[in-house]
């Protein structure tokens, strides 16, 4: 059905479903021991592993750029990860190390879960979607699209699962860039949106520890959210939940542009093609840190 702008696309329920699956297909790279091993070989450890590997498509940018783009991490944590890292390893080499880790995981864990025909079909859909995107206002998606030519290097050429992963990464970051724009517009600053997420989506302390906001800044964010009706002494309020749901809904509305011209069946088909891969990654234990341990046989 057309939306208010006249675009056609899938239902928001379908958009949310495919987002969940594409996020899982992308996100194993942050937890994989293969990634840590590749980065360690380049002399990169600690918080630099995450921030430098994810920011590598930007080139040798400053910590300020990463703070602005990643949004919900403590600036002190980002500076600890970015300051000086490009003197240790050039961004292109960090990108290549990321892809080597991705290839190891996909080739060992996912290759047996997706048929050649499924990989080809998923790649065709992803290529078409990425080709139709405008990256205006979406810096992280644009950066990830800009490194696609590096996949033609001999080390990576011909690895279709890796190319599919990078295409899905572009789609995932495209949505994330829009989501951050909506947080800015609310407004919810980086610490405030982390406080809200902690209350809504995660076991106590999990997201707070990974974003590393100091206690003083966390407390001030809680006070601001209480003054604006997001929180009370019992946690997030009904109004806070409603406002956060509105942001998520609007994010999905914007995200539906990726699938413009595709109906629910076509978009769900893309999700169905990737689902065996995410199930294989879950069985492999790559999401145990998220509370999704390896499935029991």
Walk me through the topology.
Blueprint: H1 12-27, H2 33-41, H3 48-55, H4 63-70, H5 75-82, H6 85-88, H7 91-110, H8 116-131, H9 139-146, H10 160-185, H11 190-201, H12 206-211, H13 215-227, E1 231-232, E2 235-236, H14 238-255, H15 264-283
Antiparallel strand pairs: 1-2
Brief summary:
The protein is an all-alpha fold.
What does this structure look like?
This protein has one domain. The chain has 15 helices and two strands. The N terminus is likely disordered.
Strand content: under 5%
The gross shape turns out to be globular
Distance between the termini: 41 Å
Question: Helical residue percent?
Answer: 55-70%
**H/I helix tally:** 15
Strand adjacency order, main sheet? 1-2
Which class best fits the helix and strand makeup?
mainly alpha
The structural domain count equals 1
> What low-confidence regions span 5 or more consecutive residues with pLDDT below 50?
1-7
The average pLDDT score comes to 94
Largest sheet properties: 2 strands, antiparallel
Let me know the number of strands: 2
Along the chain, the helix and strand elements come as HHHHHHHHHHHHHEEHH
Radius of gyration: 19 Å
């Amino acid at each position: 059905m057309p939306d208010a702008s006249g675009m056609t696309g899938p239902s928001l329920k379908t958009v949310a479903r495919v987002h969940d699956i594409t996020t899982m297909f992308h996100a194993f790279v942050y937890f994989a021991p293969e990634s840590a091993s590749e980065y360690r070989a380049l002399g990169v450890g600690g918080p630099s592993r995450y921030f430098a590997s994810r920011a590598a498509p930007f080139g040798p940018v400053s910590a300020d750029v990463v703070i602005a783009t990643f949004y919900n991490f403590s600036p002190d944590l980002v500076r600890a990860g970015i300051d000086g890292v490009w003197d240790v390893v050039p961004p292109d080499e960090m990108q290549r190390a990321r892809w080597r880790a991705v290839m190891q995981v996909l080739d060992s864990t996912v290759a047996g879960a997706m048929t050649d025909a499924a990989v080809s079909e998923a790649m065709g859909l992803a290529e078409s979607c990425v080709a139709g995107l405008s990256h205006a206002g979406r810096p992280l998606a644009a950066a990830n699209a800009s490194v696609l030519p590096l996949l033609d290097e001999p080390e990576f050429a011909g690895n279709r699962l890796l190319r599919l992963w990078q295409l899905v990464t572009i789609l995932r970051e495209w949505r994330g860039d829009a989501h951050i724009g909506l947080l800015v517009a609310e407004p919810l600053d980086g610490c405030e949106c982390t406080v809200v997420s902690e209350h809504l989506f995660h076991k106590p302390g999990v997201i707070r520890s990974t974003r590393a906001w100091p206690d003083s800044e966390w407390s001030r964010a809680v006070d601001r959210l209480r003054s604006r009706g997001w929180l009370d002494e019992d946690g997030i309020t009904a109004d806070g939940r409603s406002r956060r749901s509105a942001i998520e809904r609007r994010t999905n509305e914007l995200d539906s542009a990726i699938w413009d011209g595709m109906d629910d069946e076509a978009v769900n088909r893309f999700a169905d093609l990737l689902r065996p891969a995410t199930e294989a990654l879950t069985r492999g234990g790559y999401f145990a840190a998220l509370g999704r341990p390896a499935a029991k046989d």
